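Can't paste images in this forum, so I'm doing it all in text. The chain is below; anyone willing to post the predicted structure tokens underneath?
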Amino acid sequence: MSDLQTLSQKLNYDKTFDCVQCGYCLPACPTYETMERETHSPRGRINLVKMVAEGKASVEDLQEPIEKCLGCMACTTVCPTNVQYGEILEGAMGVIDEYEAKSTSQRVTEDFLYDSFFPSSKWMNTLGHATWLYQKSGLQKVAQTFQLTKIAPLHLDQFEKVLPDLPSPKRRKEQRAKRYIRKRPATAKVAFFPGCIMDSVFYESNQKTIELLLRSGAEVVLPEAQTCCGALHAHSGKIDTSIELAKQNIEAFEEEKFDYIVNNAGGCGARLIEYHHLFEKGTRWHERALAFVAKVKDISEVLTGLDELVFNQPLNRTITYQPSCHMTNVQGVTEAPIQLIRKIPGIELKELDRPNFCCGSAGIYNIVNYEDSMDILDVKMKDVCGVNPDGIVTSNPGCLLQMKLGVEREGKSDQIDSIHLVDLLMEAEPEPAWK
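Text version of the structure:
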């Protein structure tokens, strides 16, 4: 096989022919709207992939347009020919990662982050403990007062100021168990996938997720051998590592028989529900992945399915819902979160004009492509301000931080708060319907 044939195979060249360049994807693409360049649209990127595979353009020509893609998959929802854009995008990211010239220090840093940091619950706990110490020791106040945070790379100072208050190491240890069950016979046995960043930064939201499942009558188990979903790895072109993480998770959740594998992060859920695409059809791993995927559910789907909660506390709030792109466009979960919100007494839900327009978070996109991400966020915040809510409800940790940052940028932190769906539900004091 020639070098060009190998490259074409890695780029999923055969799948590019499904794109007929009709342009239906253009109005759906956030980067095309904000950057106004054909190369930064889905069909433009696909055409570039095709040109590279045919030897008419270089991998370097492909890099910037591909890396500026959010991966929101909005294009796939309007495509009339069912182009497998996600597979084309991941193939291109893998080729870029392979061909890109990187320094030794850059490679070492990436290897640590992707191979050791994100997949490790110990490192995630350490991140949570360190952030708690930074917040509670007074270091955060000093750093902000003297603007020391401005020396942080990648605009991390912007995200630092919108982080939630984290629990102490002692509280984390006391709260977290591996199995939760109430005396009443369980209505379902579920495995909970807490995620990496979600569990380190939004630990309390994870605990509330467990509590909501318990109040719905479920038995909840956290398999010890589970690890990172692999989404960040796949989005960065590290496909082989992503596959290994998928195998580890499949094995971990096979240890017991579960009705559902529950997550509360749109990005994680989107990766988990596509594990079967990582393996060749007909193989044993593909069959195991299909069995795994069949049980993957967002927390909102399980809560509406069990329908065992009664919300007792009226909240008397005007809120809007910012759906996760990956939850909407990949998982296909759209109605369940809205149904839950509407069950809360006193809530007035004002829908956005363009709810499915990406907020610009997209994993770590808002960190590595900060300025482009802020352009996209500005479009989203114009929509939010148009409905004038006092709260923004999200279903993904990245979206939550991004919306908090958007509110901060608009100077409305004293008027609008951003909250995860499970936190909102717990505010409404849910009780089991059988009480």
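The first strand starts at residue 179 and ends at 180. The chain is about 50% helix and 10% strand.
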